[in-house]
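Section 5.1 Outputs to date
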Amino acid sequence: MIRWHGHSCFEIGNEDEVTLVTDPHDGKSIGIKPPVVAANVVLMSHDHFDHNCERIVQGLDKKSVTKAGNHNIRGIPILGIASWHDEEEGKKRGQNIIFKFEIDGIKFCHLGDLGQILDDAQISKIGEIDILFIPVGGTFTLDAAAAWKVVKMLKPRVIVPMHFRIGGLSLSIASVDGFLEKAKSDLVVRVGNEVEMTKEDLPEEQEIWVFSL
């Protein structure tokens, strides 16, 4: 199961009732609804207010990951890969952690607030992935054109755009439209707020899953 809570915050759960949440925000600070979610694992790509609100996530036994390196929590292998939040090696916005993790045989990669084009070493560390969460809104992250360059490098089976302008959002970033305009329309699937799937359900041909609140 994948559920979107707006911005870069996704809830991903498996059959063993382990739930992982990425880049939680408090809602109020960015003009949208706060996430209502409980989790065992919280991944935070960097320490900016719209990605680091650990307290919003319920769960007495939750563990948070904020650093690069190998981690294993509740049976979920997690790899954190150092990257930059901007195209000037962090001089403008600092470091960002890319997270690759595997749940129920599905390989996920959440790029956080990636602001650079990936280098060969980062691509090698990420390796094969099934579902890619990628920022597309520009200003603070990759824009639509740069996001497509990264997609072509990583070749995921499913592309999930994130960190784009939606109704109420107070951040000055672009909508998802510019990213989708560069794709074949028949590859775009509007999935609503939540998707239930197994590895066998993943598409043979690359698709773009657009979530909504």
